[in-house]
Amino acid sequence: MTDTTPSRLEPIRDAGNDETDAGSASPSSSPVQVAAPAAAAPAARAPASLADQLARLEDKTARIEEKLARSEGSTARVLDRFESASLRMSEVAQQSELAAVRSEVKFIARRIRTLPAFPALLISSALTAVLTAILTVLIIRYMPGLIGR
């Protein structure tokens, strides 16, 4: 990213200004003669110097626009990288949440597997019903006053 153009352009001074100063310093020249060429010279040089200044300003503006475009491009790349990193982090967070849910489901599945199965529940309920009926009959037969008077 080397810039081949000079970093700063200075205005060039004409030798005409030095001549008018030298002319006013000589005693043989009259002030009227010095004033007339001095007034005509800046008027003639003004459009050229203004055009030069305008060209320099345009060059500087173009360089600033190029720098702005480069900085916008680098900013866009940084934003893209930041967005991709944040997406990856959210995916990792979701994966860790999924891993936690999976481990919880595995724990619940192990607990359920240790519970008795459906046939065991049917047998235990039938056994409880039979034992309750037998106990009720025994209480009614051998202790008649204990249940319902």
Automatic annotation (TrEMBL):
TM ranges? 120-143
Entry keyword set: Membrane, Transmembrane, Transmembrane helix
Q: Which domain of life is it from?
A: Bacteria
What are the boundaries of the region Disordered?
Answer: 1-40
- In which residue ranges is the amino acid composition biased (Low complexity)? 22-40
* Protein name as catalogued: Uncharacterized protein
Per the UniProt entry, what species is this protein from, by scientific name?
Enterovirga rhinocerotis
